[in-house]
Design a protein that fits this description.
The protein contains 13 helices and no strands. α2 runs antiparallel to α3 (about 40-65), α9 (about 145-170) packs parallel to α11 (about 210-225) and α9 runs parallel beside α13. With about 300 residues, the chain is mainly alpha-helical.
Length: about 300
């Protein structure tokens, strides 16, 4: 809600919108709490739910109405997100709009009666400090090992895309290119797993075995996905194009996850990673063309 639009709405209308947002967050945190087996996490989520409920009660008094019933589909999707992406990502995803909400609250603050301004100041303090401090207490394994997932995914995407691009420039057999990608990827996944194991041994926060397995599995999973198109078509261009699209999709999806968890600029990171991937593909394709010309290898010979 920008200042111009907010200025054209009554305080009651704006309070109704804030009421719905805070009520949804309260219900969402309560639902997430029911999913937690860890007592510390459950207590944390229940505290957040109570805080959001207090905020909703404040806006309900100004809006002079009760909040609408939360859409069950939104809660189901949130529950699915929790299962797939972890608690930290889910909580931070819920708070993506936090800075915008704070700005909107500050805009409406001077319009309130003096008796209500102090209450809103307290809510602002909750939004800016308390909830962020609560979320910092969450110890999520998915986040602790995110660096090893990134290591496996990013290296696999760059390396296997490069391998396939190189074969695009030197031969026309999709089967050979696909097998080569799998062989290179399998060997590299073991190498990366060993590197992750040795790295984790020097750290106390990570299990060396878990770090190695996470790195290797994320690597080989990416390799299999990127190589799959080469076994489904005999056209190198089609296979390579589909593989690159998949690589970009994996890269952008994981970049979004990391940007939410680490609160970084998603678009900058996504563009940077995509350009790096495409640059690697172009460079290895040209290198493959050069090798083909030097050694007299022509496409279609294999």
């Amino acid at each position: 809600m920008n200042r111009t639009w907010a200025a054209g709405l009554s305080i009651q209308t704006q309070a109704s919108a804030f009421l719905e947002e805070e009520h949804f967050d309260s219900v969402a945190y309560s639902m997430l709490a029911t999913l937690e087996r860890d007592e510390g996490r459950r207590t944390l989520l229940e505290r957040l739910a109570r805080t959001e409920h207090e905020h909703a009660t404040f806006w309900a008094g100004i809006a002079q109405r009760q909040p609408s019933k939360v859409n069950p589909l939104r809660l189901w999707l949130l529950k699915l997100l929790r299962r797939l992406a972890g608690l930290t990502f889910t909580m931070k995803f819920l708070e993506l709009h936090e800075q915008h909400v704070i700005e909107r609250y500050r805009e409406i603050l001077p319009s309130l009666d003096p008796s209500l301004q102090q209450q809103l100041q307290d809510i602002l303090r909750d939004e800016e400090e308390h909830e962020r401090a609560f979320m910092a207490q969450v110890d999520d394994a998915a986040v602790r090992y995110i660096g090893f997932v990134a290591l496996g995914l990013s290296d696999a995407i760059i390396e296997i895309t490069g391998v396939h691009a190189g074969f695009l420039g030197v031969m026309g057999s999709t089967l050979v290119a696909g097998i080569a990608g799998l062989v290179v990827g399998f060997a590299a996944s073991i190498s990366m797993g060993v590197a992750a194991y040795l790295k984790a041994k020097s750290e106390t926060r990570h299990s060396p075995l878990a770090s190695a397995l996470i790195t290797s599995v994320s690597y080989i999973a990416s390799v299999v996905l990127l190589a799959a198109p080469y076994f489904l078509t005999e056209s190198m261009l089609v296979a390579f194009g589909v593989s690159v699209v998949l690589a970009i999709g994996i890269s952008v999806g994981f970049t979004f996850y990391v940007s939410v968890v680490n609160e970084t600029n998603f678009w900058r990171e996504a563009v940077e990673n995509t350009l790096l991937l495409l640059g690697t593909a172009v460079a290895t394709y040209l290198f493959g063309e050069l090798l083909g010309a030097i050694f007299g290898v022509q496409r279609g010979m294999y």
